[in-house]
Amino acid sequence: MELIHPxxxxxxxxxxxxxxxxxxxxxxxxxxxxxxxxxxxxxxxxPELMPRALYWFxxxxxxxxxxxxxxxLVVYYHGGLTFDDDFDWGVSAFTMIGxxxxxVFLYDYLYKTGLAxxxxxxxxxxxxxxxxxxxxxxxxxxxSYRSFNIHLGALFGTNMAFNVWxxxxxxxxxxxTAIKNGEAPEADLVGLAGLRSKHNTYMSVPLIxxxxxxxxxxxxxxxxxxxxxxNWLVLMIVVALGWHIVFQLYKKSAKIKGF
Length: 259
Hints:
Layout: H1 4-34, H2 39-78, H3 91-102, H4 104-110, H5 119-140, H6 145-180, H7 187-211, H8 231-255
């Protein structure tokens, strides 16, 4: 176990850098670059660039998720960092762990409903649901500060990996094929791939914070007016702040032009 932790953390970081680096490339650079290409240029560039980039993108996602699950098992479940002192394994804990990995289906369903067309409303609903999940992890399941942080990260990471493999990649295969054949890709496919990629970008910034939980325990309670009862609200502030940071990055990326 002593070697499993550092080895898998090393692999987790390597895969994560590859995945998230390409995610930011697609959203902050490539989307704007592709918009400058004419149809002939797209027909030449897209079929050569995108399959290569998406290969590393999707496998980076897969290995990040897999190594993350191993770390969760080793560091938290085996390492005894899952619960606060007065809690232990029980129905509530298993329920919240189950939701960590199955909540993706609620997320996917929500963004298939008509609510998804109202960005402000569905964002508020998403934020409230995230807050409810974090609260239940802490108060009902008894997850420690580090534990409810990393489990929210695992929830986001699972959503993101699902998007890559089951929403973005299948859509992109059809989009790339259409462009290669000189045809206009279906608008629904372009919209789906773009939306889920944007979701992943918004989830990635709070996710990175949750991965740093060992270094943020100063916010677990007893400092800066934060108590052990309100420390879950700190995470929600970070989620909101992370989303705002991404929003500003999108605005900035739209202003950067080529020579």
